[in-house]
């Protein structure tokens, strides 16, 4: 399901990158082409307008110097007008002061009066720009009297010129541009496919490797070197894998330890019961002795199970910590009072030193488990006539409990492991002393649940000191 989703995601990512690349490739090309065609159109029309105006101005000067309006029968000028009109595939109309058309190269309107706005404005001396409409442009040029000081407008040339050539040029240009745009489009499309595949490839590769790992039970590391980013992701992923492997290992170890620990008392009971069964008429004393041993094994099994349950409960993230303000001096005294008989049996002296009276917000049940185990360990792993010293101190934020002993000590290489479940330093010796190796795991859980910390210092043969630091106020 997840694999399918990732594949789908990669496909859609590929598609999105491709569309993005196509858009950034084609939109600018279209804009440039459109802008270019529009400018070309504007420029070619202005150019035509200027050409026609220049030619008409020359004609106007000739008309003026030939006194055209007085002597209209001028073949040369008429020829020129026709030539000009033919050149621009248009029409030339000459209008006199009375707005009467005196000459029309189309010979359609001669003799009529014209009241077009552009003509009237031209007579007023205003410069009128060319007007573009349909397939032609139209413009007016004034005819003035020849004198240098007297520039009276005596007539107007109204000329229309065809824009067919310009339109045809523009059309040809548009067609060639369209061909280019199609070619560019094909190139951009091909490039976009290649590029988007190239960009998504490392992710696809990564997905394949990760899927392979998921199927292959965490056995291998990821090994991706497509680019720096995926290399970094792959490194982080490998760190996570290493952590998962450690968790998996400790889970397996935990399960095998639990089974082993739970089986041991059962095996002892079985041996004891079997040996009674095979002895016919065994004396009552023997029964009693064996039954006592069986009862001890049952107690042991019970302790292991309840320790395991405590740990499982504490392991849950949502573990409730029922805090109440507690007098820590009294709390520790109570614990020591309960443990003193064991200490006396082991010939170990237990002393309590407190520098101040401390009260803090704690979950007494949980911390009681923790400190009981620390003091119990200090007694158990001690020497004859040894001592255990419990000291209490505090500052404005934390209280500190130190449990020191004059015992056998913990080897340096074991210090990192003693908080692990079922870990015991010297298995044979520990077995003889009794214990399952769950005590310190419970202790650490309880301390951490309070937002505290625990550390240990030890010298083999000299003794051990556990220091616990707990905040005075419980912070959720
Ligand atoms: N004060 C100490 N001095 C020497 N060794 C210690 C001391 N405290 C703990 N250890 C070592 O650390 C191991 C783990 O301690 P832990 O309290 O977790 O287990 P345990 O005492 O063996 O069993 P349990 O507490 O579950 O009955 C012990 O088996 C012992 O080898
Ligand atoms: Mg213990």
Report the CATH superfamily of the largest domain: PAS domain
Largest sheet: 5 strands, antiparallel
What separation lies between the terminal Cα atoms? 38 Å
Q: How many β-strand stretches? A: 12
Average pLDDT number:
89
CATH topological fold name of the largest domain: Beta-Lactamase
How many domains would you count in the coordinates? 3
Biggest sheet, strands in spatial order? 2-1-5-4-3
Question: Judging from the principal axes of the Cα atoms, what is the shape?
Answer: rod-shaped
Q: Indicate the proportion of strand residues.
A: 15-25%
Query: What is the tally of helical segments?
Result: 10
Low-confidence stretches: none
Structural class: alpha+beta
- What's the Cα radius of gyration? 53 Å
CATH architecture of the largest domain: 2-Layer Sandwich
- Kindly state the percentage of residues in helix: 55-70%
